[in-house]
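Researcher: We're teaching a course module on how sequence relates to structure. For the next exercise, students receive a sequence and then see the predicted structure as tokens, so they can try to spot secondary structure elements on their own. Here is the exercise chain.
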Amino acid sequence: MRSVRARAAVGATVVVAVALIGAGIAVLLVLRANLTDQAGLQAEVAAREVAGQLALDVPYGRLDLPDEEEHPVQVTDEDGRLVAASKDLEAVSGTGTDRVTPNASPAPGSSGSDDDGGGDRHGGDDNRDDDANTPARGEVSTDDPDFTNGTATVDGDTADYRFAAVSATTSTGVTLTVHAGAPLATEQKAVGSVRAAMLIGLPVMLLVVAAVTWLVTRRALRPVEGIRAEMAAITASEDLSRRVPEPGSRDEIARLARTTNETLTALEASVGRQRRFVADASHELRSPIASLRTQLEVGAAHPELLDLRGAVADTVRLQALAADLLLLARLDAGGRPGNTLVDLGALVHEEVSQRTGDRIPVAMSVPESGHLEVTGSRGQLARVIGNLLDNAERHAESSVAVSVFRDHGSVVVAVTDDGAGVPEPERERVFERFVRLDDARSRDEGGAGLGLPIARDVAHRHGGTLTATRAAEGGARFALRLPGTESSASGG
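Model: And here is the predicted structure for the students to work with:
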């Protein structure tokens, strides 16, 4: 099943089916138990009526037994012998004995000399005291009766019964047990009717649940189909300016649509940046390549006119631009910096010492105590410091300074110059790729607008920041802030 609607409908139907079957079984069990208890109560009442007669020493032959079909009765003595039974009882099971023909035995309360135990057992002095003439009475057990299930055949009809066993004691101390039954036909009929109704209603209810779930899921997933169709159209047209429809609800589908549109917006911006990057890179490469080609063609035709220094400068510019583009590609690919421990103070010393041909000497301010370590790529961090110094050299009037210091667990490298500075509205724009606030001068001096963007990307990859502010001298101040190591923090 590849359809979400189908899986939802089947899942809901299975869950409802399990719940209904469980509930139905519970209902049937409770109904059967209640009806069985009612039958047991009826059997107990019938058994106690007969036991009450036995406690009054009513002869077995004169017992007033209930209707055989409603309440078949057996009476057994202490030895388990059948002493009385319903007249039309033909077979029985589930009681003390399966016999249905009573044994010949004396009447309850008699010694065997009286015919029926119903006469005056003491003779005839009518003037005797009333208490002396009153025979002793037996008793019926007040304990809860024992219940069993069995069958009984009355007038050729066999049915299931609930039997109750009640004990009775005669006046002479004879203990008898009365087994009386109550039919379970009502219980069986009721349970059967409920079971049949469930068997008929359950499939109908499951069909209704499946149909309703299918329709509700279809309606709920309709916006998803709209999102899918629009995404397919966007993919086919490659028009990232289009957006998927957002439903007015506040559910998960609406959030999915909003997230999809946000992703499309980010993708559109990324593709736009990529396209501008390719266009700007092509433009930047076209100029030195064209210049180099012109010089080589002139040199080939007129060797005496070859500007060898200009060709070398253009080649160096191409090499630097290619290196910048390669580094940006690696940064965009998400490459992580290394885990090398780098001393920024020593790294600044090393970078400044190699800049012997700078137009303006670089003034350094690095504490001698050390503890300026950070973790990262030494090569990339050296590239950042070099780019910042190059940028300061291009714009400075007479001074360039670099300082390294600790600040609240971070190590900061600040590069300042006394040039025109960066206007406040442009302080974020200068970190965009191929952006040059002074295109003419930057192009003449070899700047392609990639030094500061590369520096900020490297700073972010190292978990730091790179910001542009105004220097105290009036020029620009670029501050590289990187998280220091534990030794850096303890040294501060």
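Model: If you want an answer key for the exercise: The two ends are 65 Å apart (CA to CA). The longest strand covers residues 157-169.
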